[in-house]
Specification:
Strand order of the largest sheet: 1-3-2
Helix content: 55-70%
Radius of gyration: 42 Å
Number of strands: 10
Distance between the termini: 120 Å
Oligomer: single chain
Length: 1185
């Protein structure tokens, strides 16, 4: 039997795994007509016909190769898990077949198929083994659609072919699509066989041919016997269908292995319908997966005929009427039992059988109504649903009331019964002691020694009571129950006879004591008859697994009741516990088999599923709270006047605003009522998870807070890219509105935190940080090859909403939209940055667009984490731009010999000209010389100008953000900033010491990462020192190219500070200055204008990536030599400076200022006398006339 038990254990584990992984199907593998991006990568079984062609196509297309690599890196592990699950189903079918064949061939000496069916436990297990295989097939097709299975298997084959075994072909054939395409109007958990092709599902079930003798034996056993002895628990004939509900589900599933019975065996099908389906037609197959028999058997002649003959329309009306009467009766009965003070230990002992009968009736009624009135039907079977609802006064509320009442009744009864069983010995001893006490009083009464009450002395009666007391003392629970019960009954009868014979009824005192004794003796009989089996029977009677998914239909009515009466959550707790009992079905065999690890895993899965539902139910309370909060926010923000520090007496009435304050107080009280409703629920163990009502409330509030804040951020931060300037765009206004919304929500949240019994500020900070971090992570995913699939910031219990991408928008989230909108407004092609004012100006209108206060507005609207998030997005953008530069130059052209030689020649030529200039005072025109190299490079080497400019623009913003963070941090948390700064200095000192002496300790990488996160939060970092990607160690040709590249763009540069300095034209300016300003304006208004400050930052950032080489210093040296040659030639020939020279000097001085390199280094290249000459020519000269 151990082998068959192992089959059932494995079967339940496989089904659980299929249900688990069905929730993990990647979105890319799901059928979506709107997303065709991965069609060439993720294919169904058509791929196997074009393997070579498709692989070559992917290999030769860079875009497809990137997508392919992304799928491989992101989903390799999950694909393996899916394949192993599919293979497990395939192997289960084969192993079951092999086991049956071995039994038939006599491989097991003492066990045959016949002997297994003769054994009570064996009969259960062998039937379950086939049934579980059928459920596996159904769950596989229902929860993981055929087209998705094919795509998963093809992808597994492509990415794991080197590890795949010989069975992959068989698994693919076994799991190929069946064509099952359910109607979306029904829940996915409803099996709809009519939605597939003809021959479904019998053809699907026959993919592994099973021994038909074995199948026939299983079907015959299920059809004719009560293998689980459930009829003992439901003795009433009308309850036969609920007693045999498990068998009917097994029979339904197993009949697909023998379709001939469904199609042709009318007699057999009539027998089945008369026994199992004579009063119900919607059944639960496994853990709430339902099927409508009228639809499922529509294509099977014999089954359809038998079912329709059994369930005629008039019969359905009669059944419905009977069940409706029973429903109303049970509601009233349970309502009476649940009145306070009725259902106690004494009442239960006396009326246990009656109460169990009521529970049985209630569960039958609840099951019938939940299943047969559910909206699970097609056009053909709709008539039966209409009959159920039209033939009586159908009301969903009645079902809900019954479910709540029976759940509460079962919980109370089980609690009392469990207490009685656990303390049976103690209670038995107490009863005996109390009986003996009463008998001693009676003995004393009839001894004549009690002076207070005058009773005639009766020695015989006294001795009789004494004998009874001794007999009572000798009764023990360890004795045979029947013997003890018989003695107790005899004693009760004897007391009745004694009372009548001696006329003790006339003596009030004696009569009272005898009545008490007989009552206690009756209680002892009831206590004696309570067995451990009562809990098992109640568990079986109260099975609620059929409603595992259908309970969702009650969600609206539960929400409505909670909004009206939050305290009803106490009753709902009983419903949650009743739902939790459904876990017994998939876990029983696994527990018997001793699979501790599988047992824990499956228990966690089903417990988590149930906890999700509980959270969904309770979430209506936080939702209602936030509705009230919204009203409070409106009143506090827009109507309630802020009290001044000092208030004049005559204005007290004006600021009192009593009506508004009364409304706020009323709303706050309503919030506290909802809070009390949740907290009144006790802690509840659901499966293996304990539900704490306080934690549930806090999680619910967090969920609503996240939803409201994320929605506000998403709705406000939407921009129209067609609008050209900030006034039209209203970016500042949007940020101000967002600041107002966030501030109002935060202040109100802090106001009500005490009424919600939560730490408002902590929750606010944690959830804002989570929202921002999650959206930043999602935005940064677009820059990563290996994307984060399961974010650590996302949560099942407190999910962050994922909003759809806006049409024609590159950004995935509101953080990306905000970051890109800022870049769009400060686009260096249409704006110029004035570093002295830290502001951007429009190059056409000369109006200020963004000033130094802008980052403070960002801080107020998206808080510190938002600024850090934008900074992170810009970091990824810069890294992508640098990768493009690396790909365009270092990986491609600079490896070609002709370009390498050209750039090496340029360096040697510049060095030669530098040496020659010392010997020859007159040199040839350097402008023409450099132009030759510029022209050659422009023809063959890609232009990286756009990358340099965008890198520089983002570097400016990173500087601004860092400055804002460190400024606000020094104001709001000075101690933290100082501590982090000191700690950072200490770590740097340790790193330097370790670098000089390896024997000294080095800070751990984890510590450095943690400290770096905190430093970024307070702005203690220098963005210009950041290394984004690792460039090759030796790329001197690259540095030479950047010099040529910079020379080629000198005449298009303009520096904002120069425009600020020379912002007027007047006769007091030197002609050179007037001309210089005119040239600058011409550059700015030309199509080739380049912001010099942005360009400088782009160059600096680019060279920082060569952190192992000092290329920036070499660049200044080589570029400075070129400038010096042009400057010297220009002064000798024209006595005025060309724009290329002034821009070149400004560029180098900007680089020196930003990087902190000493100016003396530059003066060694260009003598200070020449630099002074440049300054002199661009200085205001007073009019001497």
């Amino acid at each position: 039997m151990e082998k068959i038990l192992e089959f059932t254990s494995i079967g339940n584990a496989i089904i659980s795994e299929l249900l688990k992984i069905s929730e993990l199907i990647p979105i890319e593998f799901k059928t979506n007509d709107g997303n065709r991006r991965y069609d060439e990568i993720i294919m169904d079984f058509k791929y196997f016909r074009i393997i070579e062609t498709q692989e070559k196509k992917i290999e030769n297309d860079e875009h497809l190769s990137d997508l392919d690599e992304y799928i491989r890196e992101s989903y390799s592990k999950i694909l393996l898990r899916f394949y192993l699950a599919f293979e497990s189903v395939f192997e289960y079918g084969n192993n079951l077949n092999n086991f049956i064949n071995d039994l038939n061939e006599g491989a097991f000496i003492q066990t045959t198929l016949y002997s297994i069916f003769q054994d009570e436990e064996g009969r259960q297990l062998i039937c379950e083994s086939l049934y579980l295989y059928a459920v596996m097939l159904l769950v596989l097709d229902i929860f993981i659609p055929g087209d998705v299975r094919e795509k998963l298997l093809v992808s597994y084959y492509r990415y794991h072919s080197q590890n795949s075994d010989s069975s992959i072909d068989d698994v693919c054939k076994f799991c190929r699509s069946t064509g099952y395409n359910p109607n979306n109007q029904f829940p996915i958990t409803h099996f709809q066989p009519l939605s597939s092709t003809k021959g479904y599902p019998e053809n699907y079930f026959s993919r592994i041919p099973l021994d038909q003798t074995f199948v026939s034996n299983v079907i015959e056993t299920l059809k004719s016997e009560d293998i689980y002895h459930q009829m003992q628990k439901f003795p009433a004939p009308e309850h036969r269908t609920i007693a045999l509900a498990s068998q009917s589900a097994m029979l339904f599933a197993c009949l697909y292995f023998q379709p001939d019975t469904l199609m042709n065996q009318v007699k057999d099908m009539r027998e089945i319908c008369d026994k199992f389906f004579y009063n119900n037609w919607i059944i639960s197959i496994y853990m709430g997966v339902t099927v409508n028999l009228f639809d499922a058997w529509d294509n099977y002649k014999a089954a359809k005929t038998a079912l329709i003959n059994t369930l005629e329309q008039q019969t359905v009306k009669d059944i419905t009427a009977t069940n409706y009467q029973n429903l109303r009766k049970m509601i009233e009965t349970t309502r009476g039992l649940l009145k306070e003070g009725v259902l106690n230990e004494e009442f239960l002992l006396k009326n246990l059988e009656k109460i169990v009968k009521i529970i049985r009736e209630c569960n039958f009624s609840a099951r019938w109504w939940i299943l047969n009135s559910s909206n699970i039907f097609t056009n053909k079977s709709k008539i039966y649903n209409n009959l159920v609802k039209s033939s009586v006064k159908f009301d969903f509320q009645d079902q809900y009331d019954l479910i709540l009442n029976i759940s509460q009744l079962e919980l109370i009864v089980k609690g009392i019964a469990k207490d009685l069983l656990e303390n049976k010995e103690t209670k038995w001893s107490n009863f005996k002691s109390e009986v003996r006490e009463r008998l001693e009083e009676l003995m004393l009464l009839f001894s004549g020694e009690k002076s207070v009450i005058k009773v005639e002395k009766n020695e015989k009666l006294k001795l009789w009571f004494e004998d009874i007391s001794k007999e009572i003392s000798m009764l023990e629970l360890s004795q045979k129950p029947r013997t003890v019960e018989k003695k107790l009954i005899q004693m009760i009868e004897a007391f009745s006879e004694v009372q009548e014979y001696h006329n003790l009824m006339t003596n009030a005192h004696a009569k009272q004591r005898i009545d008490e004794v007989t009552s206690m003796l009756n209680s002892m009989i009831h206590l004696l008859n309570i067995k451990d089996s009562i809990l098992v029977d109640l568990q079986a009677i109260g099975d609620f697994s059929y409603a595992w998914y259908l309970i969702e239909e009650f969600t609206p009515i539960i929400h409505e009741s909670l909004q009206k009466t939050p305290n009803i959550l106490i009753k709902l707790r009983a419903l949650f516990i009743k739902l939790a009992t459904a876990l017994e079905i998939p876990l029983m065999r696994i527990n018997q088999c001793g699979g501790a690890e599988e047992f824990a895993s499956i228990t966690r899965y089903y417990s988590n599923e149930l906890v999700k539902y509980v959270r969904k139910i309770i979430q209506i309370i936080p939702h209602s709270i936030f509705k009230l909060l919204k009203s409070i926010i409106e009143l506090q923000t827009n109507h309630l006047k802020e009290l001044p520090e000092k208030l004049e007496k005559d204005k007290v009435k004006e600021f009192a605003q009593l009506d508004i304050r009364y409304q706020i107080a009323k709303l706050t009280f309503n919030i506290s009522v909802f809070t009390d409703g949740v907290i009144s629920m006790e802690k509840t163990l659901v499966g293996v998870i304990e539900l704490d009502p306080k934690q549930l409330l806090e999680d619910g509030i967090r969920k609503e807070l996240v939803k409201h804040v994320a929605s506000a951020l998403n709705e406000v931060l939407q921009f129209n890219e067609k609008q050209k300037n900030v006034k039209e765009l209203q970016l500042i206004e949007k940020l101000n509105n967002l600041s107002k919304i966030i501030a109002g929500l935060r202040s109100t949240f802090e106001y009500v935190q005490d009424y919600l019994n939560i730490s408002g500020l902590i929750i606010w900070k944690e959830e804002i940080m989570r929202i921002i971090n999650f959206n930043v992570e999602q935005e940064c995913n677009s820059f990563k090859k290996k994307k984060v699939q399961f974010s650590r910031f996302q949560s099942d219990s407190i999910p962050i909403p994922i909003f759809p991408q806006l049409p024609n928008d590159q950004s995935l989230t509101f953080m990306g939209r905000l970051a890109r909108e800022i870049l769009r407004i400060t686009d260096p092609r249409v704006t110029i940055y004035v570093d002295l004012l830290t502001a951007w100006y429009d190059i056409k209108t000369h109006t200020e667009l963004i000033d130094q206060k802008f980052t403070n507005k960002l801080l107020n609207s998206i808080e510190v984490q938002g600024l850090v998030g934008i900074d992170k997005i810009y970091s990824f953008m810069i890294a992508e731009d640098l990768e493009n530069v690396h790909k365009m130059l270092l990986k491609q052209l600079l490896k070609e010999k002709q370009w390498t030689e050209l750039l090496q020649k340029f360096k040697s030529d510049v060095d030669a000209r530098r040496l020659n200039s010392k010997d020859k005072p007159k040199i040839e025109n350097p402008f023409k010389f450099y132009q030759i190299y510029i022209n050659k490079c422009n023809k063959g080497i890609p232009n990286i100008l756009s990358q340099i400019m965008t890198i520089g623009q983002k570097a400016i913003w990173r500087n601004h953000i860092a400055h804002e963070l460190v400024t606000s941090s020094r104001i709001n948390c000075r101690s933290l900033v100082n501590s982090l700064s000191a700690f950072n200095d200490a770590l740097l000192y340790e790193l330097r010491c370790h670098e000089l002496d390896n024997s000294k300790p080095k800070p751990s990488a984890q510590l450095l990462l943690e400290v770096n996160k905190h430093l970024e939060m307070v702005g203690l970092y220098n963005p210009l020192e950041k290394v984004y990607i690792k460039m090759p160690k030796s790329s001197n040709e690259f540095m030479n190219f950047i010099v040529i590249f910079t020379l080629s763009h000198l005449n298009h540069l303009a520096f904002g500070r120069n425009l600020l300095k020379y912002n007027k034209t007047s006769s007091i300016y030197a002609p050179a200055i007037i001309k210089h300003r005119k040239v600058l304006l011409e550059i700015i208004h030309s199509n080739k204008f380049l912001d010099g400050h942005v360009f400088a930052l782009g160059i600096i950032t680019l060279f920082r990536q060569f952190y192992e080489n000092n290329y920036l210093m070499e660049f200044i040296d080589l570029f400075g030599s070129c400038l010096f040659e042009m400057l010297e030639y220009n002064l000798n020939s024209k006595h005025e400076l060309a724009i290329e020279i002034t821009n070149g000097i400004d560029l180098i001085e900007t680089i020196l200022t930003l990087t902190g390199i000493e100016r003396g280094f530059f003066e060694e290249i260009i003598p200070s006398t020449l630099l002074d000459q440049r300054d002199y020519l661009l200085t205001i000269i007073p009019n001497m006339n």
